[in-house]
Amino acid sequence: MEWFETPAAVSAWSDAQHRAGRTIGFVPTMGYLHDGHASLMRLLRPNVDRLLVSIYVNPKQFAAHEDLDTYPRDLDHDRAVCAAAGVDAIFAPTGSLYPPGYETSVKATRLSTVLDGEHRPHFFEGVATVCTRLFGITRADYAAFGEKDYQQLVILRRVVEDLALPVRIVPGPLVRARDGLALSSRNAYLSDAERLRARSLYRALQRLAVSVEAGGTDVAALVNDARRRLDVDQLDYLALVDPDTLEPMDTVDRPARALVAGWVGRTRLLDNLAVHPPGSEVR
Ligand code: AMP
After folding, report:
1. Is 37 a catalytic residue?
2. Ligand 1: which residue has its CA nearest to atom 7?
3. What pLDDT score was predicted for residue 269?
4. What pTM value is reported for the model?
5. What is the b/e burial string over 257-276, where b = at least 16 CB atoms within 10 angstroms of the residue's CB?
6. Tell me: the pLDDT tens digits for 35-63?
């Protein structure tokens, strides 16, 4: 496996791959890799000639009070996960990813301000900006993103289409632990007791999905009912939205996405699930 620490080094490698006629698949991450990340590598691996993973904890997507300094890190473990998934190269910048004088920002105007954007106002601008720069540096042909971060996936699709970026976004299904909790690097923060309570996010989403499959259509009633399954210290939102635009829905008369975010102790957790009314096409 090759290991690059500067944008120039990885760009030179990518250019050489393209000159040789090879395609590049790319999985951007913040490290502390788990099977959710590995699933994206496995998804791309058979479909690309070279597979690149980046490991970068992007300061632009953390607010001052958030966990930038304590975000878990373990590069030796990350290297082993990548090797097992058949990764060809890792880009792990040692310094800043941004050149001196950097001042450009990328923002999907409405999509960045709803749901998680209401609670983390600068987050999606930071994500869209770093991903756009990473696409430029890596010249990736395909980039995989997990449905775990559903809003992020919707926003990056929008950005790539709006800016006509020469990369194809490939979505990967959300990977859960055996107890149903969505895998996340931040699960490492949870105590055993908190982890038991964290499972309630998925239970609430399942309740929503089952109620919709049974014919429930009134979103306010569905959300009120599912909320009772939650055992969190603070609920940021539990919402049923259009899966492509993230616009709120009043009535579930077509496939929808249920999204939830809440705090268990000092850990903020996200989860989401596809929801299908009876007879609608599963997507
Ligand atoms: P992160 O390191 O948290 O920035 O995540 C990097 C990529 O892995 C993003 O595209 C995430 O959506 C994806 N990812 C993280 N957790 C999971 C999961 N449990 N299932 C699927 N993809 C995931």
Report:
1. yes
2. 29
3. 98
4. 0.97
5. bbbbbbebeebbbbbbbbbb
6. 999 999 999 999 999 999 999 999 988 98
**Residue 279 Cα distances to 219, 222, 239, 258, angstroms:** 18, 18, 22, 18
For the CA of 34, the closest atom of ligand 1 is: 16
Which atom in ligand 1 lies closest to the alpha carbon of residue 182?
Answer: 19
Maximum Cα interatomic distance, the chain, rounded to a whole number of Å: 57
Q: Ligand 1, from 32, 44, 120, 149: best to mutate by most atoms within 8 Å of Cβ?
A: 149
Query: Measured in Å, how far apart are the chain's first and last C-alpha atoms?
Result: 36
Confidence at 281, pLDDT banded by 50, 70, 90? low
